[in-house]
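Q: For a teaching handout, I want to show students what a protein-ligand complex looks like in token form. Below are the inputs, and the small molecule is 2-acetamido-2-deoxy-beta-D-glucopyranose. Please produce the holo structure.
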Amino acid sequence: MGSKLILIPLLALIPVTLSYSGGAPEAVCEDMTPKHPNPPQPPKTFPYKVSVSENEIKSGGRTQITISGDGYKGFLLQVRDGDKPVGSFQIPDDHRYAKTINCSGKRNAATHKNSATKKELTLDWTAPRGSKGKDYVIYVTVATDGEVYWARQPTETIKVA
Ligand SMILES: *[C@@H]1O[C@H](CO)[C@@H](O)[C@H](O)[C@H]1NC(C)=O
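A: Here is the structure, written as tokens, with 2-acetamido-2-deoxy-beta-D-glucopyranose included.
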């Protein structure tokens, strides 16, 4: 009896410290903001770098997106047309650090698979077919750990020519 009373508050703490250790859930697809108790860090202080191998690709073409920096545990990555995630990520099932999730579209978001510290991660992304003339923006949420994170940060652009 007594032990039950002690267990409940302890269990309530677990989601806070291990927030999304297995990746962002689909529930945060839209606002890309973790449901952590801490607010996001100010966008201007974003310390990570997002780069693309090619800023201009063909409709249905592929490019590589890299998130690098001083170490991060979690991320959510989307390429957006306005506020809609588009295209798809190609991540093998046995990838050590990353996996795809379906944000009302097949594999159109990428997230971490575990809370290992990552310093540089490169992922393949394919533009949708019939997207000629579109300009997309890469958005990321990056979490240094369960407490410090930057949410829905607009970064590089990808032009479909
Ligand atoms: C996402 O969509 C793919 C392709 O339809 C499917 O194989 C996969 O199981 C889906 N993933 C989840 C988590 O629903």
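A: Two things your students might notice: Residues 13-18 have pLDDT under 50 and may be disordered. The radius of gyration is 17 Å.
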